[in-house]
Write a structure and sequence with these properties.
700 residues; alpha/beta; Growth Hormone, Chain: A; Rossmann fold; 3 domains; four-stranded antiparallel beta sheet; 26 helices; 11 strands; globular
């Protein structure tokens, strides 16, 4: 009997490993499909947790009608071992089936697409954990529900560590699913009695599951999202998915499914380089944060002494060099670093800083358009230096949300530069300096002897004085500045996202709130504590993810480490909570640990408010570990207070998961976009205070 227990426990650990690797790969896959937007992370986690909670409830319903057996657990686990491959294939292949090729998607389509593509796997993985407990209790009625929580967490932490420190560097997604799926498949096979393992049905089921894992690796290249042209390069970078497609003589670089630059994009290269550099008398030192095709070639016409080209991803640089999108020029220094961190650390003074980044629709990009960033830029520019960056342009009509976006960035950068000129076009260019900026750029370039093809022929037709004046007069001086901790641009981009599709998150939020109200009315006080703790834990994880984007800017690489750290704290916490023996100590422990969470959140508020940009990575990781450790401690204590039977275990798992799902959704979709990180953190503080009040009321 003990040996069978050990086999089931090994299966639970293997399930945890596979589920976390699958979750992280699913997040990265959706980031690649939907432009790396942090809100997509929140939507995925919400769906994952709410479906997982539903799966645990299904397990409690299942045992009312069907017998608990180890053979059923084996079958469920065999299916679970191969489902991740099918899930990733569905995510990749069905996007262009259900949606117009190349189109961007709104909130509700992304919500629905992520929900239905991950539903089979997440429901089953939520089902298997409590079902494993039922199987263990059938063999040993005294088996603790807390131990299954600890065992599952051990697998989760192992899976997170495996992904973050090994698989992300050495394996493609399908290879990672194979490596994490084989242990689960093996565990599902060996938990069966020896007399049952070699039955035809078991052998054929195992062979099918293993074949799916193999086929996934074989289909890896052909399953990637299709783009126009012939695929000539594919790589999974630590910072995103990189693809290059060839259409006749043109190469297009895609990052996370979005076209970054093209080898034939002459007009954009000329505008990005000549608009700012035409204003400089003598160009000596230039900083370029990211680069488009042909920009360095245009930059060479000014014979600069030093060109620092900063690109965070070495693979992007290598690919652009390989396919002729950038050229090596005299004085070029290629620096693989985050642009903001590089600027904060360098002592070099530049004549021009050119930022060539996408729209600020993520926290990672938004951090290059905040008041704090422009303050750093100003210190690194010469007295007669110039800053240049661009946004998506417009044809004839300037939408109100876009006008507010332009106004916010204009007001923010005007805090640091006395002259800010906006030039309309296919992209809207901002030129920022402390001297008068001239608008007759073709005339200036002609005087300097700088030859151009696009600007010399089309500038006057596209950028008349009246059009330039009209755009600059559209600026609303009352629009709030864009700040690190109160990202106005993200709020506007979020609103623009809904306005673009004539939708609103209002009814979705109302539906969630009604469900939440009905759920909270019927749960016990102990379940409310677990609900609030799950809410706080995942809300804090979202805060760390978003804050990490703001201060460090490379979440695609660090998402696995952040998730792993939040998981790793649960293990020692649950172990300590399991050691509690009497009712009084359990109730007191819940109150004390709630107080600890309140203190931790208060420290987080003070730290990011006053020293946020100087905080080390370790601060965020230690905060996450401590918050999750307290959460892990509370689970066994609350479970024991409810009796610890199968029903209590099921409803405790559900309360934790539903709270976590609501924490993800409310923090990321409502609090951060509309109130900023600071007020979002204060809300979490107030929620945990309410939990403490419930605990104290229970004791009295």
């Amino acid at each position: 009997m003990k040996k069978n227990n050990e086999k089931v426990i090994f299966l639970v650990v293997a399930t945890g490993v596979s589920s976390v690797v699958t979750q992280l790969l699913t997040i990265r896959e959706f980031l690649a499909q939907f432009s790396g937007n942090e809100f997509v992370i929140a939507i995925i986690l919400f769906n994952w947790l709410i479906l997982g909670g539903a799966g645990t409830m299904l397990a409690n319903l299942y045992i009312r009608f069907f017998d608990i057996s180890i053979s059923s657990l084996s079958r469920f686990s065999l299916i679970l071992s191969s489902l991740p491959v099918l899930q990733i294939l569905c995510i990749r292949l069905f996007r262009d089936t259900f949606f117009v090729y190349g189109s961007s998607l709104g909130f509700y389509p992304i919500l629905a697409y992520t929900f239905f593509t991950i539903a089979p796997y997440t429901l089953l993985v939520g089902f298997v954990l409590p079902y494993s407990l039922y199987v263990l209790r059938k063999m040993n009625p005294t088996f603790s529900g807390s131990y299954i929580y600890i065992t599952d967490n051990l697998g989760d932490v192992s899976g997170g560590a495996l992904f973050s420190f090994v698989l992300i560097y050495f394996a493609t997604p399908m290879q990672a699913l194979f490596l994490s799926g084989v242990p689960l498949l093996t565990a599902a096979f060996i938990i069966l009695p020896a007399t049952s393992r070699y039955r035809p049905g078991v052998l054929s089921g195992t062979a099918v599951a293993f074949s799916i894992l193999i086929i996934g690796m074989l289909l890896e290249p052909s399953s990637l999202s299709s783009h126009k042209g012939k695929p000539v390069y594919y790589s999974e970078s630590r910072y995103g998915r990189i693809e290059v497609h060839q259409d006749q003589e043109q190469y297009t670089l895609f990052k996370d499914g979005v076209p970054v630059t093209s080898s034939e994009n002459l007009n954009m290269a000329e505008e990005a380089v000549h608009y700012p550099l035409s204003q400089i008398e003598r160009v000596k030192q230039v900083l370029m944060i990211s680069s488009g095709s042909g920009m360095l070639k245009e930059l060479q016409k000014y014979n600069p002494v030093i060109v620092d080209y900063v690109e965070i991803d070495p693979k992007i640089t290598n690919v652009m060099l390989r396919f002729g999108m950038i050229n090596k020029i005299p004085g070029l220094n290629v620096l693989h670093n985050d642009g903001r961190r590089f600027l904060s650390g360098t002592e070099r003074i530049y004549d021009a800083i050119i930022i060539n980044l996408p729209e600020p629709d993520t926290f990672q990009i938004n951090r290059f358009y905040t008041d704090q960033f422009f303050s750093v830029v100003k210190k690194r520019l010469a007295p007669n230096g110039i800053l240049s960056f661009s946004f998506e342009g417009f044809e004839n009509y300037l939408a109100e949300s876009q006008r507010q976006k332009i106004s916010s960035i204009f007001n923010t950068v005007s805090n640091h530069f006395s002259q800010v000129l906006i030039l309309p076009g296919q992209r809207i260019f901002f030129l920022c300096a402390d001297f008068t900026i001239k608008t007759d750029i073709p005339k200036i370039l002609s005087g300097k002897g700088v030859d151009t093809d696009y600007i010399s022929k089309y500038f006057y037709g596209n950028l008349s004085h009246s059009r330039i004046d009209h755009l600059n007069n559209q600026v609303d001086r009352t629009t709030p500045d864009n700040l690190d901790l109160s990202p106005m641009l993200i709020r506007l981009m979020f609103s623009q996202w809904f306005a673009k599709y004539s939708t609103s998150p209002f009814w979705f939020v109302v539906a969630v709130m009604i469900f939440l109200l009905l759920y909270l009315i019927r749960i016990s006080k102990e379940e409310y504590v677990l609900f609030s703790t799950g809410f706080i834990t995942m809300g804090s994880e979202i805060l760390v993810i978003f804050a990490f984007q703001i201060f460090f800017g490379y979440i695609y690489l660090q998402i696995g480490i952040i998730v792993t750290v939040f998981l790793s704290g649960l293990l020692p916490g649950a172990w300590m909570g399991e050691r509690l023996k009497n009712q009084d100590s359990m109730g007191n422990a819940l109150a004390y640990t709630d107080c600890i969470q309140i203190v931790l959140i208060a420290v987080f508020i003070v730290a990011i408010q006053y020293v946020g940009d100087r905080l080390p990575v370790a601060f965020f990781l230690i905060f996450g570990f401590l918050i999750s450790m307290v959460c892990g401690f509370q689970f066994p204590a609350a479970l024991k207070l409810q009796g610890g039977d199968n029903r209590a275990a099921t409803f405790s798992f559900s309360a934790d998961l539903i709270g976590a799902a609501c924490g993800v959704l409310i923090t990321s979709i409502i609090l951060i976009p509309y109130q900023g990180i600071m007020w979002a953190t204060i809300f979490l503080l107030c929620l945990k205070i309410s939990s403490l009040i419930v605990i104290v009321a229970r004791k009295t």
